[in-house]
Write a structure and sequence with these properties.
Elements: E1 2-4, E2 10-12, H1 22-43, E3 59-68, E4 71-78, E5 84-91, E6 94-96, E7 99-101, E8 108-109, E9 114-119, E10 129-135, E11 140-145, H2 156-178, H3 181-185, H4 189-218, H5 227-254, H6 258-261, H7 264-290, H8 294-308, H9 311-316, H10 327-338, H11 340-350, H12 354-382, H13 388-409
Antiparallel strand pairs: 1-2, 3-4, 4-9, 5-6, 5-8, 5-10, 7-9, 10-11
Helix pairs in contact: 2-8, 2-10, 2-11, 4-5, 4-12, 4-13, 5-12, 7-8, 7-10, 7-11, 7-12, 8-13
């Protein structure tokens, strides 16, 4: 019996592969794998190599928060395969009382468990503070809190502030950049392709910059969560997800769907890629406030405002040809590209998380890489991607984003 496959070819199918029902044939390799793995552990072939030593504990201090000038909260994760017990806490080379919360009511953390070590200690703002956790086996985990300042905590005022900041950092700059749309409509195809190349340069810089940041944060992720592997998974996962959406759109376009054939789809993909990147920007701003670095947050706001205004043309350039979309599409594009800063700010205000930050950045990188490929396809349909003008404007996009990124780094 033969049936057509997705590729349009015919394959021979049998109702009883290996003389077994199909579902049994599908499960057979998994059952055999389980039996072999169970036999391997039961036989303990590696017992002769066991020297009897216990594995070293692996406890990571992910970050600290300072809810008041009388309290230090140390956030920890057990990366090792065995339980670890926190027996003592040293602050400024002196032993202090402490309480472990989030670990089942005691000082012992199970593998991959996270907890908070709360220390009643009066600290001085701006003075570096050394903290050490001593484990039951005598090993010590050290951490330095640089220039400590009080964390504001998650309050209604802070949530409202994050909304205002998100509007000024994400929505308003992107909307201002989108005001170039009428000017883009007056351009020739040659120059419009150059603007698309410029947009690709902007996105390429965002992808590279976010990629470096993601791998840097990945090094701070607790070892139990495999930070670099998490970053790679985020990049590939987002790229393939957006590619799946694009492939679905191409199938609709091939079937004659006029909406799927328009540049509006690409515009929404560009807005999605930028929005995912801005989600990570909001996380950076929110976490700076959560960690008490309000002055750093203010600098980030100004820097991101200058940085994000260049993203507006990238969003609207794909729809500069053909019929102008309705005004609600422009509103939706601006919200998708800019509003995620607000969500990121809220999440970052809860507490800084290297794991969450690395994942958000990685997802943004993957989405942006796929969107760049979409922009290339738009240009190649009725133009030449590698023209001198397109290459120059692509480079200009990289340079512009580098220059505006300096305002974020200052």
């Amino acid at each position: 019996m033969s049936k057509p496959t997705d590729g349009g070819t015919n394959v021979n199918q049998t109702e009883h592969p290996l003389g077994l029902p199909r579902w049994v044939a599908a499960l057979l390799p998994l059952v055999l794998l389980g039996l072999i793995a169970g036999g391997f552990f039961a036989a303990t072939p590696l017992a002769s190599l066991d020297t009897g030593g216990e594995p070293l504990p692996d406890l990571t201090i992910t970050h600290t928060t300072l809810p008041s000038d009388e309290t230090v909260v140390v956030h920890v994760t057990n990366n090792g395969p065995d339980e670890v017990t926190i027996s003592q806490v040293l602050v400024a080379d002196a032993y202090w009382d402490f309480e472990v919360t989030g670990a089942g009511g005691d000082n012992t953390l199970a593998p991959r468990e996270t907890a908070q070590v709360v220390v009643p200690y009066h600290w001085n703002p701006g003075w570096d503070l050394d903290v050490a956790l001593m484990l039951s086996d005598g090993s010590t985990v050290h951490h330095t809190i640089v220039a400590p300042s009080e964390s504001p905590g998650l309050t209604t005022d802070l949530l409202v502030t994050m909304v205002v900041i998100g509007l000024f950092v994400g929505v308003i700059p992107v909307a201002l950049g989108m005001l170039w749309f009428p000017f883009l409509q007056t351009m020739s195809d040659r120059w419009l392709h150059a603007i698309l190349a410029f947009s690709a340069g902007i996105l390429a810089f965002l992808a590279v910059d976010a990629g470096f940041e993601a791998f840097e944060l990945g090094e701070q992720v607790p070892g139990a969560f495999e930070g670099p592997a998490l970053v790679v998974l985020g990049i590939l996962g987002a790229l393939l997800t957006v590619q799946a959406v694009s492939a679905w759109r191409e199938g609709r376009a091939a079937a004659g769907d006029a909406r799927a054939q328009s540049g509006l789809w690409v515009a929404y993909l560009v807005a999605l890629g930028i929005g995912l990147h801005n989600l990570a920007e909001g996380l950076a701003i929110g976490s700076s406030f959560a960690l008490g670095r309000v002055s750093l947050g203010a600098f980030l706001v100004i820097g991101f405002m200058l940085h994000n205004v260049t993203e507006g043309p990238a969003v609207v350039a794909p729809v500069a040809r053909g019929e102008r979309p309705s005004i609600w599409h422009f509103f939706a594009l601006g919200v998708i590209a800019g509003a995620p800063v607000i969500l990121g700010g809220w999440l970052g205000s809860l507490a800084f998380s290297p794991t969450l930050g690395a994942l958000f950045l990685a997802v943004g990188v993957g989405a942006i890489l796929q969107v760049i490929w979409e922009l290339r396809g738009m240009v190649s349909r009725n133009g030449r991607v590698g023209s001198a003008l397109n290459l120059v404007t692509f480079l200009v996009g990289l340079v512009v984003m580098y220059v505006t990124d300096l305002f974020v780094a200052l």
